[in-house]
Amino acid sequence: MERSAALGGLQPNYLLCPSRRRPSSPPLNSLPLPFADNTLSSLNFKLQKRFPLASRNVQAASSLFKRDAILSDTYSETAELVDMDWDNLGFAFLPTDYMYIMKCARGGDFSKGELQRFGNIEMNPSAGVLNYGQGLFEGLKAYRTKDGNILLFRPEENAIRMRQGAERMCMPSPTVEQFVEAVKATVLANKRWVPPPGKGSLYIRPLLMGSGAVLGLAPAPEYTFLIYVSPVGNYFKEGVAPIHLIVEHELHRATPGGTGGVKTIGNYAAVLKAQSAAKARGYSDVLYLDCVNKRYLEEVSSCNIFVVKDNVISTPAIKGTILPGITRKSIIDVARSQGFQVEERPVAVDELLDADEVFCTGTAVVVSPVGSITYLGKRVSYKNEGIGEVSQKLYSVLTRLQMGLIEDKMDWTVELR
């Protein structure tokens, strides 16, 4: 587990960029230094309106006025928690304080990253991501521990997956180290938005997109790497309660040789039609089949699927049409460490009909038990539509590890203090 202060090792090219200024305010880096006492005093009220930080951190916020100030340990000691109803936190976007931006040209390398005040971004209408969908995203979470520290869960795995996806999409990508350091900086800059222990998590969304203008079909000439965050609760409205799925046998999420195995933005727009229809009929989500045989399980709209029978856990093998989920990978390791037999293989839809238990995994859902699945008009229920013993056990072990409640023998968590 990483014990050092996360921001202490950042290089000087990670700047705090106060680009989101109100027109009536002077540029932050143009104010004279050092401040006279009365000047600093008069700025306190303005800072609290402009920077939603707690009063005891006004001094830390005033350090942002230094020209091109690099992130420091002082800044990592962020304010008290945001005053909000943490008990009713859902899975919906909430704007926070800062976002991280880094750019590079095609064929170049990402170098200078900046933290900016969270806000809208400008983009050319001819940007590659807008016209040809040249974009990827990742998703990971930060958890607050009982001792007040913050844990990230396997951020290097997200970095590796983004690099693999970028290669498929003809895009440059940050190095693993750049990705992880950028995530750390963004989380610490928004530390006050990390929910209290047991109340949720801080969802972290890294984006990689072709931001340069391109008219003909070709890779964009410029790329932007951006990270924003939002506090979240449960992904499904049911929470940890069982969800109800319908098997889709006409529409398909991915095809062999396509991009189903990478986290490109187009994969998710393709599921909206079937998902919307399913939700209108009272289902939680859609389970997709392979497009060749139309009988093998692939994945749910945004998560992987597992089937339990006689203490054997089976999940569809990763062969290019299924996203290699990091939670999926982690659950397989956790399950094996708990004595379960896990098989990665083609799983026929017929196996759902007599399964003992079914559950889904993903960054957003973590582990979500399935109460029922409907296939060709036939509804199959599991455990009286309750939470199965296997999914309950795996959920408990993984979430306790993510929140620092048990020893991390896997060396998966990264601690920020």
TrEMBL record:
GO terms for biological process: amino acid biosynthetic process; branched-chain amino acid biosynthetic process. The lineage of its organism: Eukaryota, Viridiplantae, Streptophyta, Embryophyta, Tracheophyta. Belongs to the class-IV pyridoxal-phosphate-dependent aminotransferase family. Pathway: Amino-acid biosynthesis; L-leucine biosynthesis; L-leucine from 3-methyl-2-oxobutanoate: step 4/4; Amino-acid biosynthesis; L-isoleucine biosynthesis; L-isoleucine from 2-oxobutanoate: step 4/4; Amino-acid biosynthesis; L-valine biosynthesis; L-valine from pyruvate: step 4/4. Its cofactor is pyridoxal 5'-phosphate. CDD domains: BCAT_beta_family. Pfam families: Aminotran_4. The modification N6-(pyridoxal phosphate)lysine is found at K263. GO terms for cellular component: chloroplast. It comes from the Eukaryota. This is Branched-chain-amino-acid aminotransferase. SUPFAM superfamilies: D-aminoacid aminotransferase-like PLP-dependent enzymes (SSF56752). Keywords: Amino-acid biosynthesis, Aminotransferase, Branched-chain amino acid biosynthesis, Pyridoxal phosphate, Transferase.
